[in-house]
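TASK: fixed-backbone design
INPUT:
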């Protein structure tokens, strides 16, 4: 095939999906023939990519291309907080002993980290940096922790703040321990998020943390997501529940990340 002007060579399916959704976000509609030329693949390949993205509800197929879905998001904070509650609680209780009195910690806007926050309210002289509005409110109302919430743009559904975290953290020194969740986990690509702003927030936290811990329940493994938040190599350790696929754990450990599988008590299921 002759390479089109501005074509991007040798993109795999994930990279093509990102390119397609980026174009969709800019114009609201994409054309099969245009995408095939730009990405230097056949129209058959593009149609398969679009069909796969439609199955994941991130776009809607129309004649000759696709249009944006009404919502491309990870779901509201309240909805996500109620999902897999037992697994997230078990993970949080296992991770909580890593945090000591006087620590400086970062917590992202994930619900897994909110469950961790609930376990840390009795810590003394804690400094908490978070972009989660519910987590900041929890600490300010129910603990003596010092809370730093970077400025930025409010994402209403996620109840998080994104956009200026790097500016707020620059020059303030290292953060002892950072804790982040993810929309999806991949041994090849690391932790991923559906929203670019959330992925960037995790990147900013990771860049300033001495130790970085991932908290992800087993449903996040093998899921499709768009934006790389942090590579597996940046993770000190990953905590998940015992329902995780052992082959995925093996792949993560071979990539250099320690994986801790947490049992969920039967009475909490």
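OUTPUT:
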């Amino acid at each position: 095939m002759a390479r089109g002007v501005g074509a991007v060579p040798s993109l795999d399916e994930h990279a093509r999906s990102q390119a397609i959704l980026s174009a969709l976000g800019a114009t609201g509609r994409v054309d099969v023939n245009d995408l095939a030329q730009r990405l230097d693949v056949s129209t058959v390949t593009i149609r398969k990519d679009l069909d796969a993205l439609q199955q994941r509800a991130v776009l809607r197929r129309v004649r000759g291309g696709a249009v944006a879905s009404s919502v491309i998001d990870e779901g509201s904070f309240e909805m996500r907080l109620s999902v897999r509650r037992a697994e997230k609680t078990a993970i949080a209780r296992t991770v909580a002993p890593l945090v000591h009195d006087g620590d400086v910690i970062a917590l992202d806007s994930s619900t897994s980290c909110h469950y961790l926050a609930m376990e840390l309210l009795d810590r003394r002289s804690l400094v908490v940096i978070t972009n989660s509005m519910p987590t900041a409110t929890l600490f300010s109302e129910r603990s003596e922790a010092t809370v730093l919430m970077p400025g930025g743009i409010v994402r209403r559904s996620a109840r998080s703040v994104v956009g200026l975290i790097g500016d707020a953290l620059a020059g303030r020194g290292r953060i002892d321990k950072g804790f982040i969740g993810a929309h999806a986990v991949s041994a090849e690509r690391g932790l991923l998020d559906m929203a670019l702003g959330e992925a960037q927030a995790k990147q900013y936290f990771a860049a300033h943390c001495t130790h970085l811990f991932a908290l992800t329940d087993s449903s996040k493994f093998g899921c499709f997501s768009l934006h790389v938040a942090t590579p597996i190599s940046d993770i000190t350790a990953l905590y998940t529940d015992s329902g995780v696929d052992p082959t995925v754990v093996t792949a993560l450990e071979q990539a250099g990340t320690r994986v801790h599988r947490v049992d969920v008590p039967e009475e909490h299921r």
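COMMENT: The first strand starts at residue 29 and ends at 31.
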